[in-house]
């Protein structure tokens, strides 16, 4: 098939990955078993790092960027999938070691595909995307730990106005938890209140010196910021509580002590979405199907064209994106 289509490619320029739009054809795609025609992708923080060239996300080049995709199976050499099946892919090394979702067609391994939940359109599934599905993994992890209870205590969400944060606020409030939103953007308070936040904490209050044990406040927390923020959140978590940590928007370091863990039995639960097993993914998508309010999802979503990716990448790294960005694949 010689028809060409546009892809956002990362290529080696003077030893560094550089992003640009390229025309490719189906014969350029990797030789995996399932060909998918992509209708939507999304923009995550990691996509911002890849497209801007500010982070080394791709581990081989050339690489089609985009860690998420939603589309329809066109051809399949796997018995598990047939033409017409509607599917999503989140992670699995897309944009890192495997070609990703910023292209009209992609060939993928059958085991990377998740059936599009009946509850969502492709656009809605990408409005959730890796960020939203990771928020659901975090909420499930906290509930499995067992110390957060609806109507009792406060659950903190850091980076609240971002993609992970917005979805976490919506999910937790829909499940009846009292949600405190930590944000550096006071102008997002009305938006976050609309998603279900009951009060706010300026992110600067979590960015200062880390005293090992502070006043116990959070029965649980979802953290997408890392660094001093995470260390302070751990030091403010109640006896036996847990923090689900998934991100590093504020830094990859963790300048704390073991005190919250050894004196208050506070748990730090690491959450990875990229290689999460299929059963955990299915459960996270079920949590989203059951509890994510569709009007709130619409309120946190903007839809953009693929041509806008370079600008949008700069915006998400600057912390200037509110909620989630869906990318329409032309
Ligand atoms: P967004 O950019 O949408 O959200 C990040 C938010 O973090 C911002 O909106 C901002 O929130 C806050 N923030 C940004 N910079 C800083 C800073 N310097 N100090 C403190 N807070 C800051 O990104 P995503 O929601 O897509 O991703 C968030 C993080 O989670 C990223 O690090 C990403 O890589 C990670 N992630 C990890 C996954 C995993 O599998 N473990 C999966 C998905 C995401 P506000 O304006 O409200 O203060």
From TrEMBL:
Under Gene Ontology molecular function, one entry of this record is: acryloyl-CoA reductase (NADPH) activity
Q: Could you tell me which CDD domains the record lists for this protein? A: MDR_yhdh
InterPro entries per record = Acrylyl-CoA_reductase_AcuI, ADH-like_C, ADH-like_N, ER, GroES-like_sf, NAD(P)-bd_dom_sf, Zn-ADH-like_protein
Q: Can you give the residue ranges of the Enoyl reductase (ER) domain?
A: 15-327
Which residues are listed as membrane-spanning?
Answer: none
Report the superkingdom from the record. Bacteria
> Pfam families given for it?
ADH_N, ADH_zinc_N
Show the SMART domains listed in the entry: PKS_ER (SM00829)
Q: Which NCBIfam families match?
A: oxido_YhdH
Name of the protein in question: Acrylyl-CoA reductase (NADPH)
Please name the source species: Pseudaminobacter salicylatoxidans
